[in-house]
Amino acid sequence: MPSWVESANDPAGDFPLENLPYGRFRGGRRDPWRVGVAIGERILELRLDEGMNAFMARGPAAWRRMRRELIQGLRIRSERKTAWARRLVAQREVEMGLPCEIGDYTDFYAGIHHATRIGKLLRPDNPLLPNYKWLPIGYHGRASSVVVSGTPIRRPSGQVKPADQEAPRFGPSTRLDYEVELGFVVGRGNALGSAVPVNKAGSHVFGVVLLNDWSARDIQAWEYQPLGPFLAKSFATTISPWIVTMEALAPFRCPAFERAADDPRPLPYLLDEGDQRSGGLAITLEMHLKTRKMQQPVRLSRSSSAQAYWTVAQMLAHHTSNGCNLQPGDLLGSGTLSGAAPEAGGSLMELTQGGKAPLELASGEKRTFVEDGDTVILRGRCEREGATPIGFGEASGEVRS
């Protein structure tokens, strides 16, 4: 669908009329945050008096009505062109913030290729623990340290215990890593004590952002037993500024991950035939790295979200199965989405085999983990024959000491 916003008609762009992702922006630090949708290289300001979270809480019917209105107003020869043109601002001229208020953050572990490779590094004889194929594993993260793309990342400090030393030491992490993920933004919540059935879970998901779950591997190795990730993860999580809605992603749905013949069948509360047919998402994810010596970033890996072992509906249904109440704006991380090939690893921990095989960069530099001055850039794009390609922008962060 062509738009009267010319930049939206560029086939190489991320934000055609078929996308229309939501975000929050402001002109200056003293200005209030405003809600808008990306259209080409511009932003159309919306008049949402109730705010982004309240709009998401209204549910799918309201989301669809808004999408229809936006498409009608932005398509070529629209009668609203003159009035709406006054509400356009250039993306490059504004500051982007978090796309909504994030109250809670849960990170899952749905990338089976990542889980298997990390497991082999830690437990060569037993890479996947017995529960992995029975339930969507996750842990509760720290919402207060979720930051928008472009926010500098401070290298974390913590306790580290080298294998050849009797006591741990405290200091900056030397094994700082990234993780290629998606973040699912909750729209409608559920009441405390009320579980969301898997066949209804999709109506509670508003949309998707790119997510980089920064990880201090050396701190993590010492602290994670027996209760799981803590300070190795809570210092920062970077997300993209635009929420791509589930309606925009409809042409890029795909079947759920094809399980091996001897894998267990999901328990009934996690199994819906419709979700198995089209509960997956075919989003291509690329991680790029730019060092201080580089003029242009280089691509480190390329993978697809279609490789997630669990669908977002299964993750949300499991999350609420005990009566846990989700709220508008809650963020559910997918876990690292690696591909089956070794070069499709969604973390440096995988790509360098735990630091044993440094990457050779085009600049002549080597990397085992992220160093100070490095900028990590996650990008996502959907392409399918017969559908207009759409993108997510990027989730980037420069590491500083």
Characterization of this structure:
17% of the residues lie in helices and 27% in strands. The protein is an alpha+beta fold. It has 2 domains: 6-96, Fumarylacetoacetase, N-terminal domain (SH3 type barrels, Roll); 105-400, Fumarylacetoacetate hydrolase, domain 2 (Alpha-Beta Complex), CATH 3.90.850. The strands form 7 sheets. Strands 6, 7, 8, 13, 14, 16, 17 and 22 form an 8-stranded mixed sheet that branches. A 5-stranded antiparallel sheet has the order 4-3-2-1-5, with no helix packed on it. It has a 5-stranded mixed sheet with strand order 9-26-25-20-21, with no helix packed on it. A hairpin with a 7-residue loop joins strand 1 (22-26) and strand 2 (34-39).
List the helices and strands and how they pair.
Elements: E1 22-26, E2 34-39, E3 42-45, H1 52-57, H2 60-74, H3 81-85, E4 88-90, E5 95-96, E6 105-108, H4 112-122, E7 138-140, E8 146-148, E9 153-154, E10 157-160, E11 169-172, E12 176-177, E13 180-186, E14 205-212, E15 215-216, H5 217-223, H6 231-234, E16 237-239, E17 244-245, E18 253-254, H7 273-278, E19 280-281, E20 284-290, E21 298-304, H8 312-320, E22 331-333, H9 348-351, E23 359-360, E24 366-367, E25 375-382, E26 390-400
Parallel strand pairs: 6-22, 8-16, 9-26
Antiparallel strand pairs: 1-2, 1-5, 2-3, 3-4, 6-7, 10-11, 12-15, 13-14, 13-22, 14-16, 14-17, 18-19, 20-21, 20-25, 23-24, 25-26
